[in-house]
Design brief:
alpha+beta, two-stranded antiparallel sheet, globular
């Protein structure tokens, strides 16, 4: 509807940006700004930096950030195919290995010369000086060729895929009334299907052993789960449902079937988008964990992230609410 009011033909709207008519591209920023207020759109554009490499590559700093973050958070085919861990200790070592591999893939993507120094996303070792398809910045020309299984092209595709998953999962949670409201916070579970992807079943956990064949969950990573919480907060703040007396912090719990645990992230409520608040969940998580018997893991740079054994996770939520009630 907005694009129609702007006078942009549908045929042009579905084109990659690089192939739109130059006249429409030149007017796009002005036209969006003119209609943004009518559709309650804020901060549609922002000032940033663009990196130009030679005459082929044009890459914004924000795209670089999204791409590298996606490569850090997403599992590689190598780690997905080589998951043979059985014991808890082996599973922990396997997870550490995956983190290392993801770091190496993301680090290699920073190389503007198209040369990988460690791993590729396929797990094929590449020696120094050997070019990798999709690796170099020269492949990123305004939506041009982003083929390849590694590098920034792969990172941008992963970032776009993650954003689509965030929106779809948020809508699913809302449509199913799967977010439970307590006195001091809201919370929701995110489970996996038998294929290991996001599920539409958001009830409380039951039998973790039944998920033994499940291996991975797209939101079982701190940054991805935090992005989902951030999107849910923004969405409900804008529609007026989580404001004033109805405002609450949000706790999301994402299943990690391979380890039989849940990744838990606490997200504070802010009255206005962009406000930065002190996150109290780090202290509250620690207090709740100390006052009950269970298996917990604080293994993140952020204190508002904790990993809880699947058998203890519901009691942990209850204890967390009790602790916030008494503080």
């Amino acid at each position: 509807e907005m694009l129609a009011k702007m006078g942009y033909p549908l045929e042009q709207c579905v084109q990659p940006y690089a192939f739109m008519k130059p006249k429409l591209k030149r007017r796009l920023k002005e036209m969006v700004s003119n209609h943004a207020e009518e559709y309650k759109l804020e901060n549609v554009s922002y000032t940033g930096f663009v990196r130009v490499t030679g005459f082929k590559s044009l890459l914004s700093a924000s795209d670089m950030s999204y791409a590298i973050t996606a490569l850090l958070e997403c599992d590689t085919p190598a780690t997905l195919n080589n998951d043979t861990a059985t014991s808890d200790e082996d599973k922990a070592q396997q997870e550490d290995l995956e983190l290392l591999q993801s770091f190496n893939v993301a680090y290699d993507a920073l190389n503007s010369n198209g040369v990988a120094s460690t791993l590729t996303l396929n797990g094929v070792g590449v020696g120094s000086g050997e070019a990798v398809e999709g690796q170099g910045l020269s492949n990123l020309v305004n939506g041009g060729n982003m083929s390849g299984s590694t590098g920034l092209g792969a990172g941008i595709r992963l970032a776009m895929s993650l954003q689509r998953s965030i929106i779809a999962t948020a809508v699913n949670l809302v449509d199913r009334n799967a977010i439970t409201r307590l006195n001091h916070f809201r919370y929701a579970y995110l489970h996996c299907t038998s294929q290991g992807s996001s599920s539409s079943d958001f009830s409380a956990p039951t039998n973790m052993e039944s998920a033994e064949t499940q291996k991975h969950h797209i939101f079982a990573k701190p940054l991805a789960l935090t992005k989902l919480a951030h999107f849910l907060m923004d969405m409900h703040r804008e529609n007026g449902k989580w404001v004033g007396l109805k405002s609450r912090p949000l706790v999301l719990l994402a299943e990690k079937p391979r380890t039989g645990t849940y990744l838990v992230v606490g997200y504070e409520y802010a009255e206005k988008a962009g406000n930065v608040l002190r996150n109290r969940f780090g202290q509250n998580f620690e207090l709740a964990a100390k006052t009950m018997k269970g298996t917990f893991r604080f293994d993140s740079f952020d204190t508002n992230v904790i990993e809880v054994n699947g058998k203890d996770v519901q009691r942990f939520i209850e204890q967390l609410h009790y602790m916030m009630e008494t503080v």
